[in-house]
Protein backbone atom coordinates (compact mmCIF):
# COMPACT_ATOMS: atom_id res chain seq x y z
CA UNK A 1 0.00 0.00 0.00
CA UNK A 2 2.58 2.55 -1.04
CA UNK A 3 0.44 4.60 -3.42
CA UNK A 4 1.45 3.07 -6.76
CA UNK A 5 -2.07 3.26 -8.16
CA UNK A 6 -2.53 6.81 -6.87
CA UNK A 7 0.62 8.12 -8.55
CA UNK A 8 -0.26 6.38 -11.84
CA UNK A 9 -3.76 7.88 -11.72
CA UNK A 10 -2.36 11.34 -10.95
CA UNK A 11 0.16 11.11 -13.79
CA UNK A 12 -2.56 10.15 -16.28
CA UNK A 13 -4.77 13.03 -15.12
CA UNK A 14 -1.93 15.55 -15.45
CA UNK A 15 -1.23 14.28 -18.98
CA UNK A 16 -4.91 14.61 -19.85
CA UNK A 17 -5.07 18.16 -18.45
CA UNK A 18 -1.96 19.13 -20.42
CA UNK A 19 -3.44 17.70 -23.64
CA UNK A 20 -6.52 19.89 -23.13
CA UNK A 21 -4.41 22.99 -22.53
CA UNK A 22 -5.69 23.22 -18.98
CA UNK A 23 -3.91 24.05 -15.73
CA UNK A 24 -1.22 21.57 -14.70
CA UNK A 25 -0.32 21.59 -10.98
CA UNK A 26 3.42 22.12 -11.40
CA UNK A 27 5.93 24.97 -11.49
CA UNK A 28 7.10 23.69 -14.89
CA UNK A 29 5.89 20.85 -17.09
CA UNK A 30 7.02 19.77 -20.54
CA UNK A 31 4.67 17.00 -21.65
CA UNK A 32 4.67 15.77 -25.23
CA UNK A 33 1.56 14.83 -27.17
CA UNK A 34 0.12 11.41 -26.39
CA UNK A 35 -1.81 9.21 -28.80
CA UNK A 36 -3.59 7.21 -26.11
CA UNK A 37 -4.15 7.00 -22.37
CA UNK A 38 -5.51 3.64 -21.20
CA UNK A 39 -7.36 3.08 -17.95
CA UNK A 40 -9.32 0.40 -16.15
CA UNK A 41 -12.20 1.25 -13.84
CA UNK A 42 -13.54 -0.75 -10.93
CA UNK A 43 -10.58 -3.01 -10.23
CA UNK A 44 -9.94 -4.04 -6.63
CA UNK A 45 -7.30 -5.99 -4.75
CA UNK A 46 -8.04 -9.41 -3.28
CA UNK A 47 -5.26 -9.68 -0.71
CA UNK A 48 -6.50 -12.97 0.79
CA UNK A 49 -6.21 -14.64 -2.63
CA UNK A 50 -2.86 -12.97 -3.31
CA UNK A 51 -4.28 -10.93 -6.19
CA UNK A 52 -3.07 -7.35 -6.43
CA UNK A 53 -4.69 -5.04 -8.99
CA UNK A 54 -1.42 -3.48 -10.14
CA UNK A 55 0.06 -6.89 -11.04
CA UNK A 56 -3.17 -8.48 -12.26
CA UNK A 57 -3.27 -6.19 -15.29
CA UNK A 58 -0.28 -7.87 -16.90
CA UNK A 59 -2.35 -10.83 -18.04
CA UNK A 60 -5.06 -8.54 -19.45
CA UNK A 61 -2.81 -6.03 -21.22
CA UNK A 62 -3.08 -7.99 -24.48
CA UNK A 63 -6.78 -7.03 -24.55
CA UNK A 64 -5.97 -3.34 -25.06
CA UNK A 65 -6.45 -2.07 -28.62
CA UNK A 66 -3.30 -1.47 -30.61
Could you characterize what this model shows?
With 66 residues, this protein is mostly helical. The chain has one domain (4-63). Helix content is 32%, strand content 0%. It has two helices and no strands. The model has no long low-confidence stretch (mean pLDDT 76). Residues 1-51 form the DNA mismatch repair proteins mutS family domain. Pfam families: MutS_V (PF00488). InterPro entries: DNA_mismatch_repair_MutS_C, MutS, P-loop_NTPase. Keywords: ATP-binding, DNA-binding, Nucleotide-binding.
Structural class: mainly alpha
The oligomerization state is single chain
Main sheet: strands, sense, barrel:
none
* Residues in helices, as a percent range: 25-40%
Radius of gyration (Å): 15 Å
Nearest-integer average pLDDT: 76
User: Globular, elongated, flat, extended or rod-shaped: what is the shape?
Assistant: flat
Protein name: DNA mismatch repair proteins mutS family domain-containing protein
Keywords: ATP-binding, DNA-binding, Nucleotide-binding
GO biological process, one term: mismatch repair
InterPro entries: DNA_mismatch_repair_MutS_C, MutS, P-loop_NTPase
Amino acid sequence: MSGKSAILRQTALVCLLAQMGSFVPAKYAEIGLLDKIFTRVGATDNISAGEIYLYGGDERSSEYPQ
